[in-house]
């Protein structure tokens, strides 16, 4: 699911990645899950790895964290690449219908995430990778069970829901590339357009895909990598 991302992003550059709190290889059952602690985690990773000046890549909810980091530490960020992000989370957007739907899904998440029956997780997967094969679905289902505990899954989604960086966009002063899948069901393409429009000089690239996580072999992933490499080469040393 992520191997091709790691392979291609590290082919010509040093890649430093980390799992956000309560997820993957990071510590579980962390008491505080908030936007500020997510930003603090990124700051800690940069300090621990000794990074001086670098291109910052944000995916999905991490786009907002990247924006906040770039504003707080402009001396560190030479350029920024944002994929599949959003300016406001679903609670912050304030749409009553969306909130009701998401809260219903949250109830299912708390009750069904860790259960043997994969029905809910498969529905969750279908939002992220509707163009996937059965093998992809099985792999992602196993990944979710192994990397996120049921209560943490809901707590993370709740934290993401209140993200709002709308007042930060105009403060970004680094070259920025925003990419988004045209038919993304997790973060509508309008979210990417809004993000790019609010950042001075940002470029927006719309990719022909319905997957929030671009899959290996689909043309949109190859296009994504091409744009990323060209942008890094253009802004290197900035």
**Rough outline:** globular
Cα radius of gyration in angstroms? 17 Å
What is the rounded distance between the termini?
32 Å
Name given to the CATH architecture of the domain at 1-16 and 51-88 and 163-238: 3-Layer(aba) Sandwich
Q: How many individual β-strands?
A: 4
Walk me through what this model shows.
Helices cover 49% and strands 10% of the residues. The chain is an alpha/beta fold and 238 residues long. It has a four-stranded parallel β-sheet with strand order 1-2-3-4, with helices on both faces. Helix 2 crosses helix 3, helix 5 packs antiparallel against helix 8 (150-161) and helix 6 (119-128) packs across helix 7 (134-147). It is globular.
Write a short abstract of this structure.
This protein is an alpha/beta fold and 238 residues long.
Features:
238 residues; alpha/beta; Rossmann fold; four-stranded parallel sheet; 10 helices
Q: Which helices and strands, and how do they pair?
A:
Elements: H1 3-9, H2 35-49, E1 54-59, H3 62-72, E2 77-83, H4 90-93, H5 96-112, H6 119-128, H7 134-147, H8 150-161, E3 176-181, H9 189-198, E4 203-207, H10 219-235
Parallel strand pairs: 1-2, 2-3, 3-4
């Amino acid at each position: 699911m992520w191997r091709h991302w790691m392979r291609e992003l590290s082919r010509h550059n040093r890649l430093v990645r980390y799992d956000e709190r309560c997820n993957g290889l990071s510590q579980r059952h962390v008491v505080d899950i908030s936007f500020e602690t997510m930003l603090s985690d990124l700051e800690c990773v940069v300090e621990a790895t000794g990074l001086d000046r670098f291109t910052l890549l944000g995916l999905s909810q991490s786009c907002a964290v990247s924006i906040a980091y770039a504003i707080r530490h402009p001396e560190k960020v030479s350029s920024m690449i944002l994929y599949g992000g959003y300016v406001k989370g679903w609670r912050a957007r304030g749409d009553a219908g969306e909130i009701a739907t998401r809260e219903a899904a949250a109830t299912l998440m708390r009750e069904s995430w860790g259960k043997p029956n994969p029905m809910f997780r498969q529905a969750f997967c279908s939002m992220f990778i509707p163009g996937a094969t059965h093998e992809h679905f099985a792999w992602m289902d196993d990944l979710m069970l192994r990397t996120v505990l049921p209560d943490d899954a809901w707590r993370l989604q709740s934290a993401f829901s209140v993200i709002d960086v709308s007042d930060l966009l105009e403060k970004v002063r680094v070259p920025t590339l925003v990419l988004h899948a045209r038919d993304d069901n997790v973060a509508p393409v309008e979210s990417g357009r809004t993000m790019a429009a609010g950042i001075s000089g940002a470029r927006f690239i719309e990719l022909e895909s319905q997957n929030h996580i671009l899959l290996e072999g689909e043309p949109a992933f190859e296009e994504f990598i091409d744009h990323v490499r060209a942008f890094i080469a253009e802004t290197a040393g900035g």
